[in-house]
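Journal club prep — side note

Before the paper discussion, L.F. wants everyone to see what a predicted structure for a comparable chain looks like in token form. Sequence:
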Amino acid sequence: MTAPAPPPRVLLDEAALRERVAALADRIAADHPDGVVLVGVLKGALVFLADLARAIRGVDVELDFLAISRYAPDSGRVRILQDLELDVAGRDVVLVEDLVDTGLTLAYLLQHVRDRGPRRVELCALLDRSARRIVPLDLRYVGLELAGDAFVLGYGLHYAERYRNLPVVLEADRATVAADPDAYLGAYGATWTSAHGREAAS
């Protein structure tokens, strides 16, 4: 008989996500009174970017997107699949990611945006897994610093395109999901142990 999957742990529930997003939005608005272009990295940042944009008050916000390929085998390189449509020359840009770990991809995208001549570019990540950092990055806006090599799902974060739609961020068991990508599907609505030791449910 197969052992049940270890239950996921809620790192950020819906209320905590709203609080983190609102705090980041307030800081971005204060830093960019003349307006800002938020550039989301598809697909992972889409959910976070949508909430972040709606939470920014009192300044003009424009949205654009970048989409990239997976790393090419043996090259360590990605390709731009969707480029910016807006002219960002002379403007303030915030590059928005769901999760930053090694920093390799984000460093590449940061230089790509800088080559467009913006006035300044800053980095915003919902989650920072700095324990895996290879390339130094200055993340001005961070929602949550992850401990160690935490494996996370939900709120745009996925495994094999699953779990993006969860309205929370979960810490899950990497080996369990690798063995069975559907292991936690349908789990939302069950009772989980939250990161703060209380019980969390939908």
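L.F.'s comment for the group: Confidence is low (pLDDT under 50) at residues 190-202. Keep this in mind when we get to the figures.
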